[in-house]
């Protein structure tokens, strides 16, 4: 895998080498990097599409797990916010008593 800070080998040729080796994630990362710099390159777009079509999809159950986990995090954040609000004491002067 290419180090995140080392973009020395980020070329279309290197991406093709990775794709030929079955390292589709590395190839896709390079193609995306190159497309950020030259978005009008149709050949890079086609190559990226080809690599993405060969990448295995995540199992359906992982999508389900990520949805449940995201929902749990949202509910925990709301619960914590509610607990903070419940701790707020309103002074008698503010209530008009």
Summarize the structure.
The chain is mostly helical.
What does this structure look like?
The protein is built from five helices and no strands. It has two domains: about 10-55, no CATH class; about 60-95. Helix 1 runs antiparallel to helix 2 and helix 2 packs antiparallel against helix 3 (about 40-55). The chain is mostly helical. The longest helix is centred in the C-terminal third of the chain and has 28 residues, at about 60-85. The protein has helices at about 10-20, 25-35, 40-55, 60-85, 90-95. It is elongated, with a radius of gyration of 24 Å.
Write the layout of secondary structure elements.
Layout: H1 12-20, H2 24-37, H3 42-54, H4 60-87, H5 92-95
Helix pairs in contact: 1-2, 2-3
Q: Uncertain regions: pLDDT < 50 for 5+ in a row?
A: none
Assembly type of the chains comes to single chain
Query: Roughly how much helix do the residues carry, as a percent range?
Result: over 70%
Average pLDDT over all residues: 84
Separate helix tally: 5
Distance between the termini: 68 Å
What fraction of the residues are assigned to beta strands by DSSP?
Answer: under 5%
Query: Shape from CA axes?
Result: elongated
> What composes the largest sheet?
none
What is the N-to-C order of secondary-structure elements (H for helix, E for strand)?
A: HHHHH
Radius of gyration, in angstroms, nearest whole number: 24 Å
Query: Would you count the extended β strands for me?
Result: 0
Give the total of domains. 2
What structural class do the secondary elements suggest? mainly alpha
